[in-house]
Design goal:
The chain folds into two domains: 116 residues, Periplasmic binding protein-like II (D-Maltodextrin-Binding Protein, domain 2, 3-Layer(aba) Sandwich); 85 residues, D-Maltodextrin-Binding Protein, domain 2 (3-Layer(aba) Sandwich), CATH 3.40.190. The strands form two sheets. The chain has a six-stranded mixed sheet, sandwiched between helices. It is built from nine helices and eleven strands. The chain is α/β, with parallel strands linked by helices and 209 residues long. The longest helix is centred in the last third of the chain and has 13 residues. Bound molecules: 1-O-pyrophosphono-5-O-phosphono-alpha-D-ribofuranose. The site of 1-O-pyrophosphono-5-O-phosphono-alpha-D-ribofuranose (PRP) has 12 residues, from strand 9 and helix 7.
Length: 209
Amino acid sequence: MSKPIRIALTKGRLEKDTVGLLEKLGFDCTAVREKGRKLILPVPDANLEVVLAKANDVITYVEHGVCDMGVVGKDTIMEMKGKFFELVDLGFGRCKFALATKKGYDFYSGYGIKTIATKYPNVARSFFEKKGMDTEIIKIEGSVELAPLLELADGIVDIVETGTTLKENGLEVIEDVAPISARLIVNTVSLKLRQAEIESLIEKIQANL
Ligand code: PRP
């Protein structure tokens, strides 16, 4: 058998959903389910090798060709960009990017430059550039909802899934920025060199979504 196709999965929920999908395809994912602290696991009957990584690193490994494929959120793809093929919308990991402010705040009034806090500065910048609106973007590492509460920012561009975090902190969505879901990405060279294997896997995946 040829060497396994390496697929990088974003650790956490996308990893679990992807393993569920591979099992639906009939592949035995016992090694991944019982991984302990191991980071590279075989799925032998699919001739796959699963690599577990943080979202940004999934893109880095696929871009550099050390992983042939990856499963990563559209949020990370929009923020990092990069050179790879984005071939399948896997449909899980659904949420959205949204602009949110303190409840009742009139974000679009006044002439002063607005300040936006976000973990995704490139996404926020391109959203406001498309509007022709000058903003100051401040990068925050997590719990971005704090920034308007502490009056560091007028608004945030962040991921909203259920809306609970916003609600419980007195914030509200004032505009959707972009829908998000998990995507299957493929290294450009791998797709050429292992086209038949990769396409056959993608066909199976698409038939089971
Ligand atoms: C994400 C996001 C929001 C929250 C949204 O944060 O940044 O804070 O989830 O989910 P909800 O709409 O269902 O409440 P995450 O849990 O990844 O933590 P972080 O903000 O510390 O990165």
